[in-house]
Design brief:
This protein has 51 residues and is mainly alpha-helical. It is built from 2 helices and 2 strands. The protein has one domain. Strand 1 and strand 2 form a beta hairpin.
């Protein structure tokens, strides 16, 4: 099935993959922050600045 020139299956895969990636980054960042004892999310800032 195609909607606005995009396969729905491809859209769902990208949607799910993006969600899994976001949750993975959040979990990893939380673990690093907890073990490092820091309050500011420096890992998230570094990833966002690097690109």
């Amino acid at each position: 099935m195609r909607v606005v020139g995009v396969d729905v299956e491809d859209f769902v895969l990208v949607f799910v993959g993006g969600g899994l990636g976001a949750v993975s980054r959040w979990v990893l960042s939380s673990i690093v922050q907890r073990h490092a004892g820091i309050l500011f999310p420096w890992c998230t800032l570094a990833v966002n600045v690097i690109g």
